[in-house]
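Fold this sequence, please.
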Amino acid sequence: MKNEQMVRQRLLTAALDLFVRKGYAATTVREIVAAAGVSKPTLYYYFTNKEGIYLEMMTRTFALFQGIVDQISDSHGPARERIIHFATMIFDSVLENIEVVRLIYAIFFGPPQGTPHFPHDHYFTTMLAVIANMAQEGMDAGEFRKVEVDDVAWTIVSSMNTIMEEQICHVPPRADRARLMSMLNLYLDGIAVGKRT
């Protein structure tokens, strides 16, 4: 069983490297198996085809994201702390999975590459909903002023996206986790109860 997991992981790692460097469409099964050091039948056994490898990558990545969403949804405490915790958990996960995130951005924003459909926009939609829910809880608890909750969600998610994109596009990144926290605190100070409008 352990050997099977190692073979699967070698295929996933090789495919990810090739997808990021060459693009999904330009990568062949032959190149994937050569990089992984296995035969074509081995790839077909574990993933059926190139599309299967791609979907496995996307499913695993989304499961990590959903785990963070579930964890923050089950948490308690001040909304401000939970919002910052959520944003930094997402940031940390992006850093830990930077090559998959780079691929997702390339697929989502780049030209069509013939990838199987995967609902990448669900990440963004879910982040907006999670932040909006926490912001509303903060308003209901008297922690935040009554402002347009969608504005809060869009502002925070926009800050998160800017910092995440910085990790992908610039070496070294010009903004990091500390900058994200600073930006979020600046904004959350502005909507905190007792702050001047």
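The chain has two domains: 1-48, 56-191. The longest helix spans residues 50-73.
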